[in-house]
Amino acid sequence: MTRNVLIAGAGPGVSGSLARLYAAEGGSVGLLGADEDVLAALRADVEAAGATAGSTLVDLTDDTATRAAVTRMGEHVGHLDVVHFNPSAYREKDPLSLTVDELLEDVRLGVGALLPVLQAARPFMGPGGRVTVTGSMAADTPWFGAASLGVQKAGVQNLVHSIDAVLKDDGIRAVSVTVRGLLKDEGPFAPDNVARALRAAIDQDEDDWRTEIPYAG
């Protein structure tokens, strides 16, 4: 089955692997990201795999620009089958040095940006549509040295539960995959393997749907 996929927060790691994975299945892959060079490389990878690619440079914390970018991509492909949300902010500050403004800035990207992405994508999604999120063990076992990351991952995991609850009657489901390990170049926590876990999450049985799936390698 070919799918039209939108990846918000596209980068060289897990989201890049996910883009290439979906590209290998055909369909269309839309990429939203903040690094023009990375987007160009990913777009080339998608097209080399024989899929249709589109990319837009956008600051996902800019609500208006994000909505416009998602809408343009939705209008271009006609419908969206999978929306994947990937971004988070890594700031090495503990709770004694992290300011309120810094925390809110990070949460705006790692949690809040999911709202305009989802709301703009919703008119292009129908039964069978899926929303996926790259989760992290930082949600429940945070490292104090990067305190805002744990708040982001806990927040976005919680938000996914609400998204699924509000969309499931329309046949659209949401899931976050909690990566319980540190990303590495090789082994079970290599980006390609984490991407496979995210890809597999959309095929789970709807009668036994889980909105949070741990990936422990």
CATH topology: Rossmann fold
Summing up helix and strand content along with how strands pair, one would put the structural category as alpha/beta
Largest sheet: 7 strands, parallel
CATH architecture: 3-Layer(aba) Sandwich
SS elements, strand count: 7
Total DSSP helices: 7
Helix content: 40-55%
The figure for the number of domains is 1
Model regions low in confidence, pLDDT < 50 over at least 5 residues: none
User: Could you say which overall geometry the principal axes of the C-alpha atoms support?
Assistant: globular
What is the radius of gyration computed over CA atoms, rounded to a whole number of angstroms? Answer: 16 Å
SSE ordering: EHEHEHEHHEHEHE
CATH top level is Alpha Beta
Side-by-side strand order of the widest sheet: 3-2-1-4-5-6-7
Q: Roughly what fraction of the amino acids lie in strands?
A: 15-25%
| CA-CA gap between termini | 26 Å
Determine the CATH superfamily: NAD(P)-binding Rossmann-like Domain
Rounded average pLDDT: 96
Defining key terms:
single chain; about 220 residues; alpha/beta; Rossmann fold; about 40% helix
What does this protein structure show overall?
- By secondary structure, the protein is α/β, with parallel strands linked by helices.
- It has a single domain (4-215), classed as Rossmann fold, CATH 3.40.50.720.
- The protein is built from 7 helices and 7 strands, in the order E-H-E-H-E-H-E-H-H-E-H-E-H-E.
- It has helices at 14-23, 36-48, 63-77, 100-112, 114-121, 147-167, 191-201; strands at residues 4-8, 28-33, 52-57, 82-85, 130-136, 173-179, 212-215.
- Strands 3-2-1-4-5-6-7 form a 7-stranded parallel sheet, sandwiched between helices.
- Helix 1 (14-23) packs across helix 7 and helix 4 runs parallel beside helix 6.
- The longest helix is centred in the C-terminal third of the chain and has 21 residues, at 147-167.
- The chain is globular, with a radius of gyration of 16 Å.
- The relative contact order is 0.14.
